[in-house]
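SEQUENCE AND FOLD
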Amino acid sequence: MKPDRPDHAAPPDAAARRAVQPVVCYPVDTLPPPDLVAYRAAREGARKVSETIVPPRDAMAFDVPAGAFFRITSIEGPQVGDLNLWNADDLSERFFSGKTRALHGTHVSTGDRLWSNLPHLRPMATIVADTLDWYGFDAFGGSVHDVIGTRCDPYTHRLLAGGDYHHCCHSNLTRALAARSGLSASAAEPHVHDVLNVFMCTGFLRETGQYFMKASPVRPGDHIEFFAEIDLIGALSACPGGDCGAEHSSDAARCHPLKVEVFVPAAPPAGWTPPARNAYAGGHGA
């Protein structure tokens, strides 16, 4: 947090320094855009092969084969979800929220991709539909589906509030991955990573730069849908914050289940092939 009263006076050229124009760190003009027309054509008539109901204040894992679609839907009431993704054949390859944020911005929607961690750095999933894409950015600078927040966790809760709370999203995701993989909770926990905050409405306060949340605009029936670029294990936590309009990491908020459906098309999208791992040869100049 920046101090209200800085210790140092502004220099004479402070205004000029502040007026320097920003430069986008990672221009994405050279990235081939996803062929949403082909994806949507493949989605037509796709066969539903599984449905997972994620209970309130808990998480569930699910599997999605490469070339299939998965949809996360709000049911019963406004609810935020924390999403993790792994390569189904290699848990060390997982969703990289930081690089996704650097490439696509603080919040993601249709046409954006969820990228995997280094050294893999390839698309894991592509967003093909989002019923909240109308929201944009509000007057507070808030938007939906963020790749900013890390996930609520019992360690930060202990640090700030004292006591232990076992239904933070970090713990929920740990239990879900342990159940899916057969790993112990202690072995599964290091694979849990920063999330896509599905349906969560967040931003940064202009005055202090602090991360904020506000009640999500999601309503029953709203959904976000993805195309799996590689074989995936997913885990979704129905956050204990409910719609995250007040607090999380407690049993205070009203919470609702979320639904995950997987759909397999009759044929993959025209021209699609699973993305290869990043082509950088390694070495790092050593």
The chain has one domain: 47-264. The mean pLDDT is 96. The radius of gyration is 20 Å.
